[in-house]
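haha ok so turns out i had the wrong file open the whole time. this is the CORRECT one, sorry everyone. sequence first:
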Amino acid sequence: MVPADPYASFYSQSAVDPYVPPSFASVEEGLAVIYRGGPETLTSKALREDLKWFATQQRCLEAMSARWLCELDRREQLASEGAEGSEDDHQSCARWLSETLKLTPNAAYAQVRTARMLSSLHWTADALRRGEISAQHVGVIRRAMEQVPRTRLEPSDVEPELVFAARQMDPLNLDRHWQQMRYQADQEAGLEAEEERRGQRWLSLNQIPTGNYRIEGVLDAEGGASLKTALQGILGRRPAQGDERTPGQRRADGLVELARRRLDGDLPELGGEKPHLMLIAELSTLQLEPGSRLAELDWGPLVTGETARRIADDASITPVLVDGEGEILHVGQSSRSVPRSLRKALNLRDRHCRGPACTTPPELCTPHHHRHWADGGPTNLANLELRCDYHHGRLHPENHRFRESRAP
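then structure:
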């Protein structure tokens, strides 16, 4: 005897009938029972098993959701074909998703696009429904199958191979597996895909209202690997003892250090001289006098006297004489605060950063004046020591210490 379909009445509704939800009450009640039971009394093994079960059911629901979404999209396409002046096929369904589930338009369209593709990717849909692969795997397979027509590969062979591989590896390695498949079968298609990915690179560097800069972008594989290798060379394997910066802060400082090194390197001349960071500061600012003005960097950002002193510790100084209205009266000759010969002697003496237990090599350090030259401190070995960016920053700002030294 064939059991009755509990959803028969739902599927047999006419389009004009009021909406009657399917009988999901038992499913919802079961989940509620599990939730009320809580994880506190379970063993660690049971917790792991439950988490695996949750993931499997979640993936099954994602597969079902995609199937339902594909059917809704199909109906709306049919409706749009008979309605003059209607919107594009995907926009109505994607907009409904966006407005109802509060998704971004791009995320909503990606769901519709994946649902459409899954309707023809039976191996992929079945693996997702069984919980064997994740939505991220599905995304990799979908993108690969969209690219297959541009290769010599046979689509009917590619999908089962990718699904089999997806069961064994994470999405990142699955994408690499796909790239290997494509290149081994069709080098020209692999080269074309690489150029396409390279064309997706971009970089944005904008000053935000606080005066800081926000950097965003995407690098191609070669550029990203090159930058990562260079940053690792600057940062070393592990932070120095006492370095309390977050990994993100260390990477940011490493990127700035790379820029500083290029400024001292072989960049082409602009306006008759090598490009360098310009700092404009009054002597009173460098001496931290009360009422002194903020210093100014290239492109307009303002910085405090403490930051100006740290930058000026090892810099090329050009004295400029101005009148009361700011008109330039005289520009003197540039000279480095620490001459190259003295810097070599300092490197030989200190060998590394003089911060506590810090082994940062001298080429990654800045000469630090115990008493700043702006305060009359001499530029000699006795008044200098090497400091890495982190330990150099720890010595600035020095406003409180400076005021104490000036107190009568």
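Residues 279-401 form one domain.
again sry for the mixup
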